[in-house]
Amino acid sequence: MVKICCIGAGYVGGPTMAVIALKCPEIEVAVVDISEARINAWNSEQLPIYEPGLDGVVKQCRGKNLFFSTDVERHVSEADIVFVSVNTPTKTRGLGAGKAADLTYWESAARMIADVSKSDKIVVEKSTVPVKTAEAIEKILTHNSKGIDFQILSNPEFLAEGTAIQDLLHPDRVLIGGRETPKGQKAIQTLRDVYAHWVTVDQIICTNLWSAELSKLAANAFLAQRISSVNAMSALCEATGADVTQVSHAVGKDTRIGPKFLNASVGFGGSCFQKDILNLVYICECNGLPEVANYWKQVIKVNDYQKNRFVNRVVSSMFNTVSGKKIAILGFAFKKDTGDTRETPAIDVCKGLLGDNAHLSIYDPQVSEDQIQRDLSMKKFDWDHPIHLQPSSPSSLKQVMCVWDAYEATKDAHGICILTEWDEFKTLDYQKIYDNMKKPAFVFDGRNVVNADKLRNIGFIVYSIGKPLDPWLKDMPSIA
């Protein structure tokens, strides 16, 4: 029986291994992590991450050929294939701080694999890693190999949170990079055979190691670039009276461009986009390509500009101050159908409003109060380190209240900011909400989910990203 072990039971490791176990019943799959709380959650009725469809897959396989354990060394030692899906946070100090990936966790995983291995292994990079990481890991393993053969493969994930299970069951492509040696090619074939249980052979792309590593960074950079492009257009649309939804629809009809990732919003978030672009910038700078580095830097600058612009619009619309005013925040996760708050635009928007002394009432159907308080108290990039290395849970921010109902959040509020596109926000009783708000009542729609005309008929003053401005807003000074 082939045995697979995955180090890291997070957003990538957990769902990926669950689907492999589902599709390969003859393979034993173990997911290991040093966090006892996380493993306990994977073994419970309440999984540690929210992802549509994940619950059913885990329950179908758990205890049969899918196991979650803190006995890291035993499972690594017994495995034929070891996936490594540990954090690669952005460095916060030292060389490359603020851009380069911190490979501390990767390096310690590689050293542990070398220490406990008694048989040949295929080691698979599953985390997003900078180009040439495989080479560094290879050096650690071969210099500590004790005669054991390690083959390194790069197998980047291309999951979108909220649709991860469907992405795993029906991938656009599976990418496997390895050495162009007989042993390297054999390792590629072994991993290819695993995926071939449910993925057609023509969808499995085999490349060299560096191409596989760079393809992941490039894919995320291209996607983020599209979002920043349409968000840059949204500012121009507001200035000219154009409608960004109509513009992006017209642009997306061009088959060379296509319609995906062309929805204007308050900005992109998630664990990968900013981190991977910063990584790309650092690699370009290290390879003497400052012009290329500056090009990708601009994608992040536009994203930051969009969040600042949104905050400025809120403050300037409400008589140039939100001090002491209650602002309802609807949605805190970085996108719908996930509880993930990593790099969510809501953090910067909330911090901007708190900076002007607003009182926030936050509602998100999947994000806990502890997580929200933690996110609003943390420094940039701290989120990407293991929980025990993050700042201990801070004293609650007095100006922030978390509630479990949109109507409670909006009661007596001066304004509403919609920051996540949860479906339920489209169908709320906005007449009821309006009746219970302070007047004038404002809605700032950062995701273009509400019908602005209907809300204006109720009496709201509405700002929608990239849409023609409400007459009220035209009269207010723009400080964007």
From TrEMBL:
Q: What would be an example GO MF term here?
A: UDP-glucose 6-dehydrogenase activity
Q: Which domain of life is it from?
A: Eukaryota
By sequence similarity, the record places it as follows: Belongs to the UDP-glucose/GDP-mannose dehydrogenase family.
This protein is called what? UDP-glucose 6-dehydrogenase
* Gene3D superfamilies per the UniProt record, alphabetical: Cytochrome c1, transmembrane anchor, C-terminal, NAD(P)-binding Rossmann-like Domain
Limits of the UDP-glucose/GDP-mannose dehydrogenase C-terminal domain: 328-452
Swiss-Prot/TrEMBL catalytic activity: UDP-alpha-D-glucose + 2 NAD(+) + H2O = UDP-alpha-D-glucuronate + 2 NADH + 3 H(+)
The record's annotation in InterPro entries points to:
6-PGluconate_DH-like_C_sf, NAD(P)-bd_dom_sf, UDP-Glc/GDP-Man, UDP-Glc/GDP-Man_DH_C, UDP-Glc/GDP-Man_DH_C_sf, UDP-Glc/GDP-Man_DH_dimer, UDP-Glc/GDP-Man_DH_N, UDPglc_DH_euk
- Coiled-coil ranges (or none): none
Tell me the Gene Ontology biological-process terms attached to this UniProt entry. UDP-glucuronate biosynthetic process
